[in-house]
Design goal:
- By secondary structure, this protein is an all-alpha fold.
- It has two domains: about 80 residues, no CATH class; about 35 residues.
- It is about 70% helix and about 0% strand.
- It has five helices and no strands.
- The longest helix has 25 residues.
- It is globular, with a radius of gyration of 19 Å.
- The relative contact order is 0.10.
């Protein structure tokens, strides 16, 4: 049932937002610092936890899997709506920090792929098209 997935998502979001607000207060920033990202991590950990194993099996598991899969696009959509024009108006430091983050991310792709378990094997064992 999707309701269990929504309940787990809501609980993770509330805890993540509370921690994000607490981090904002601790860092003396008037904003929520990473609350949505923290909530996403909680959802990933909770959906893979042994404690919630009974929820993730059967009909209830489909709801949790659905919301776990939907949560990352939701976070990406929330990040995409940030005001890029304000960042550009903020000066060259904001622009160069954004460009540097993208360049470093692209540069780390080969490094991270070498750290993985090797190439993913095709089900056809290399025979035929994918």
């Amino acid at each position: 049932m999707i309701v269990y997935g929504v309940a787990l998502l809501s609980a993770c979001l509330i805890v993540g937002m509370l921690i994000g607000e607490a981090l904002g207060i601790a860092l003396n920033v008037e904003a929520n610092v990473g609350g949505v990202g923290i909530a996403m991590l909680f959802l990933v950990f909770a959906s893979n936890s042994e404690k919630f194993k009974s929820l993730t099996e059967g009909a209830a598991g489909s709801g949790i899997k659905f919301w776990s899969a939907m949560y990352i696009p939701i976070v990406v959509a929330m990040a995409a709506r940030q005001n890029v024009a304000a960042a550009v108006d903020g000066g060259m430091l904001a622009l160069s920090a954004g460009v540097a983050a993208v360049v470093v991310s692209f540069a780390l792709v080969p490094v991270l792929s070498k750290l993985g378990n090797g190439p993913i094997e095709d089900e056809n064992d290399g025979q035929g098209a994918i």
